Each structure stands twice: as C-alpha cells, then as structure tokens.
Please model this.
Amino acid sequence: MSLPCLVRRAALLACAGAAPLLAQAPDPEPRSAGSDSASLVAQGQKLATDGKPAEALALYRRALAINPNDFEAHVASGVALDLEGRYPEARSHLNRAIALASNDSVRARALRPMAISYAFTRDAGTAAKYEQQVVDAAIARKDYTGAADVDNEMARIYLESGDLANAYKWYQSGHETALRKAGLTQAERDLWDFRWEHAEARIAARRGQRSEAEKHVAAAKSILDRGTNPDQKRFFPYLTGYVALYLGDYKAAIADLQGADQHDPFILSLIAQAYEKSGDAAHAKDYYRRVLVIYTHNPPGAFARPLATQKLAAG
Model:
C-alpha cells in the first residue's frame, strides 16, 4: 500500500520548497462587464470555444493593451497559447495571473490551468506543485470534495505521464479526502468508491497485472449496479477499453472505446493508439485528426493533442 495521505502531502510540500515563490502584485484593476477589455476577452473566449485560438489571442492582446492587469485576459491567453503549443508564452501569462489573484479562490483559477500547461509537456512533478496549492487551500476551508477533485486531476496527470506510483498515491489521497466530508450520502460514497476502483483498474492494466485489473473492473461494475450514480455509467466503456488497450486486446479496446464519449479527445486518442497497434494506420490517422478539431484545456486535451500532433507530423 502507498503512503497515507498526510505523509504524501508533507513529502510533496517538502519537494515543492525549491519552487520559486510567486511575486506579490497589486490586485487586478476592477473589470466591469461593459468595459472594453472585458468585452474583448468574452469575444475571444467564444472564438476559443469555436476552435479558433489564434483569433482569440489577437483579442486577448487588445484587452491587455487596455488593461495589463486583466486577470481573465492573462488566463485566457495562457490557455490559448497552450493549445497552440506555445508553452513558455502560456506559462508567462499564467504566472502573471497567479500574481494578480486577490484570494485563494481566484488564484485556483490560474493555478489549475498552469498545472495543465505542464501536463501538455508531461512534466507531472512541476504540475503537482501548482495543484498542491489548490488542494491545500480547499482543505483549509474544509472543501474536501473540491480537494479530492484536484487530487484526482493530478493523479491522472501522473498516470498519463507514466509515473504510476505517484498516480496511485494521488488517487488514494483523493479517495481518502472525499470521504472526510461531513454527512456523506451513500450515493456520494459510491461515487468515490467507483472512481477509486476505476483508477486502480487502470493503474493495474498499465502495470500489466491482468487479474488485478479485472478484479477492479468487476468491483467498479458492482458499484454501478447499485444504481446510485446512473450518470457514471458512461465512464464504464472508457474503463474497459482502457484496460483492454494496455493488456494488449486491441479489438476489444476499439469496440469498448467506441461506446465511450466520442467528444473526449483522450478517448479518441486511445482508439487511434489501438488501431495503430493493431496495424491499421489509416484508421489511426483518422482518429488522430479527430483529436485536433477538439480544443480543450484539461487533462484529456493535454495528453491527446500533443500526441496527435506528433503522430500526424510523423506521417
């Protein structure tokens, strides 16, 4: 078993001590919904949602020319630049947003995108330094569900970066933290137990442990069958497809993953990999192309987009 949650947190904070301190900065200038910079950012975010990060960036630049301390413009710029693969520029804007944040709640809206920025380059260790700050602030205000969500987000970053040991620790921490919530309902407990079994199955599959992975898949299915979280059923084909892929059953992986969310770029990238490993290059390329028309700044996008770009560039 891994280190207990509190030990893991202490160890990570010690490691994070070498990270540069964030500079103090004045609070952002007040923004009204009708201000020029606010309007430009809103227009840019609409373009970004439509898959036009370059056009969005042009509007964010105009917003920052009007108000260099516009928190929203800096965060939005960082997100758009990440999606264009311009990571150092993205992190410059996100660092500025972190410095401008007036409180922990606002700061988290820049810290998490910064962690995702490092996920794009599979630098999980640096991403963790930013996610840990969000977790600590959430626990300080007894928001255990919020802290657990970030734990799981970081666990996934570690998992898809290939660090299975730290992935396990962060998923375990998320599970333990979620259960600290006062008045936890049975449905909430089932949700977090399902997520923990889901994570354990994927980690076991990555380790090539077939029987262990299958045991956790069965446990996850048993929790779903209780009917307390019907909305989680959509994540089950992703689980079985993921496990099949990493255990080498590419035909089953493709079939299961095609029953999962086809608007999730990570699932599309898993299907592409399954086709690629089964020797079907044409279908693999088709799915990698589908990845690149989805613009999401989250762990699924952070791992799917660079891989698809790399695969298609290689021909």
In short: The radius of gyration is 20 Å. Confidence is low (pLDDT under 50) at residues 1-34. DSSP finds 16 helices and no strands in the chain. The first helix runs from residue 5 to 15.
